[in-house]
Amino acid sequence: MANDQQKLTINLTKANILAAVIFIILFALCAPAWYLQYGWPLKDIGDFTVLDIPGYPMLSSLLFIVILFAGIAVHELIHGLVFAHYAAHGWKSISFGANWKSCVFFCHCDEPMKKRQYVVGVLAPFVILGILPLIAGLLFRDVEVTVLAISLTIAAAGDLLVVWKLRPYPADTLVLDHPSEPGCILYTPTKG
Questions:
Q1: Considering its fold, how many domains does the chain have in total?
Q2: pLDDT tens figures, 65-78
Q3: Is the dihedral of CA 167, 169, 170, 173 positive or negative?
Q4: How many angstroms separate the Cα of 14 from the Cα of each of 88, 125, 177?
């Protein structure tokens, strides 16, 4: 049985627009949830405890940026861990890098995998670094965790767009991470 090959990549402008939409949606959901539970959310924004360095507000902001970039690195590492789990050659199939022109960091797996496995690998950082910490931040009234979780959820916009574009393809589709663009290459079985 032969396979048809199809490139499925995403436009970074569309991913950035989706990131803005995600931010608006999260704000529209989180602010009322925070208000109902704890009161007006803006009064808590200045209550950073872990990131607040008294007398050094610039260092506090710098520390947040460092933690955010570390979160993005962990985001790519989570992709790598899940992809390596599914790849026949494990870590030998995984590489990491950055496209400095578009300010995009990436994890690449050079082995095809089943669509479900690929989707799990693509969504894992969104769930682990975005959704779960967001819920924890809201439950435990932790402003830093909530803001960081929103930021890392927004960072997964491109991943969400890839998964959205994969929806119509059959479960037996093999998916290969695209080597140079955000997205993948699909290998669907040819009938006949």
A1: 1
A2: 888 889 999 999 99
A3: negative
A4: 33, 20, 19
